């Protein structure tokens, strides 16, 4: 493989409008152009030899419903388990309730 040079080239990618807009907003928050952000990510992938894809952890509507119910239960003192300082006490109580 030849040694890298500082000469740059262009590459076109297709994005839907919403993704392009979100990328631009994100890059603006970082204070860098979107193309610089994309190039940095590509270089990182090549250096590491891997691709890491993650998503924002947002609860599903079903999980949000469960979380709201848990909040209600906590405020009402309902469905709350005892706090334990160690695993032995936990398992001892568990054995008593089986």
SSE diagram, text form:
Blueprint: H1 17-30, H2 34-48, H3 61-76, H4 87-96
What does this structure look like?
Among the domains are: 17-48, no CATH class; 61-96, no CATH class. It is 56% helix and 0% strand. It has 4 helices and no strands.
Features:
single chain, 98 residues, mainly alpha, 4 helices
Helix and strand sequence: HHHH
Global Rg: 25 Å
Shape: elongated
Largest sheet data: none
- Provide mean pLDDT, rounded: 88
How much strand?
under 5%
How far is the first residue's CA from the last residue's CA? 66 Å
Number of helical regions: 4
Which structural category fits the helices and strands? mainly alpha
- Number of E strands: 0
What is the gist of this entry?
This protein has four helices and no strands.
């Amino acid at each position: 493989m030849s040694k890298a040079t500082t000469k740059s080239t262009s590459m076109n990618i297709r994005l839907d409008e919403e993704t392009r807009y979100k990328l631009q907003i994100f890059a603006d928050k970082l204070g860098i152009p979107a193309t610089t952000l994309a190039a940095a990510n590509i270089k990182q992938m090549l250096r590491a030899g891997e691709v890491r894809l993650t998503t924002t952890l947002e609860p599903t509507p079903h999980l949000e419903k469960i979380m709201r119910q848990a909040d209600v239960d906590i405020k009402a003192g309902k469905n709350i388990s005892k706090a334990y300082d160690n695993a032995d006490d936990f398992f001892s109580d568990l054995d008593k309730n089986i």
